[in-house]
Amino acid sequence: MMRTPLxxxxxxxxxxxxxxxxxxxxxxxxxxxxxxxDIAVCPPAIYIxxxxxxxxxxxIAYGGQNVCEKEKGAxxxxxxxxxxxxxxxxxxxxxxxxxRSIYNESDSLVAEKxxxxxxxxxxxxxxxxxxxxxxxxxITEKVVARQLxxxxxxxxxxxxxxxxxxxxxxxxxxxxxPEQAQEVHAFIRQHLTQSNADIAQKVQILYGGSVKGxxxxxxxxxxxxxxxxxxxxxxDAEDFLRICQAAV
Length: 248
Ligand code: PGA
What we know:
By secondary structure, the chain is of the alpha/beta class. The protein has one domain: Alpha-Beta Barrel (TIM Barrel), CATH 3.20.20.70. The protein has helices spanning 17-31, 48-54, 81-86, 97-102, 107-120, 132-136, 140-152, 178-193, 197-202, 216-220, 237-247; strands at 6-10, 38-42, 61-64, 91-94, 123-128, 161-164, 204-208, 227-230. An eight-stranded parallel β-barrel has the order 1-2-3-4-5-6-7-8, surrounded by five helices. α1 (17-31) links the parallel β1 and β2. The protein starts with 5 loop residues before the first strand and ends with a helix.
């Protein structure tokens, strides 16, 4: 099964109008001749209109880093799926480990957000992954299965993307080895096969956690790794482009 790889940049809470313009212009011009990889960036919500304007006719897609599970109304500080769509977002990251751990998003809230995103027509990038403590306790598969099951109990993973991001590898410079990552990716695909074999084969499973230009190739070479969700390195045009090239 041929899955088109996806490389998505998660800019987190970084950037300014000025830095974003420079970054996008370098990424756009450096990737115009790159085919066989889907590329996306997820800016802080306030910059989505700026990004939308710059990328209006571009091959680069963009999306949100988070979204509210509610449709509209009295939810101060939140952003609705319809608002992301109003600026032509294609993707939205759901359940990033920073949202889960710092903002206490539970498995069930993550599942609600996933459903809201899909119903609206956005492609959710569902993040799953274990902490260091959980890996050391040998419960990685159990944790990832629990995070997936919370979503598959209420929806399917058609028109969705999964990002496996071991929490201990995020922003730490510690990358999972290609073998460690592949092991969990294969587990995820096999686990999803139990509910729907077609979707399990089709769904892109990205790896995230300290992916850089220098280690992307060996990770993306693995059978079940279909690209990456890139934090730190997505803020550097040259490094991000190297990662995109490694996915082809
Ligand atoms: P990192 O972040 O590449 O900086 O480790 C990845 C992520 O959190 O999505």
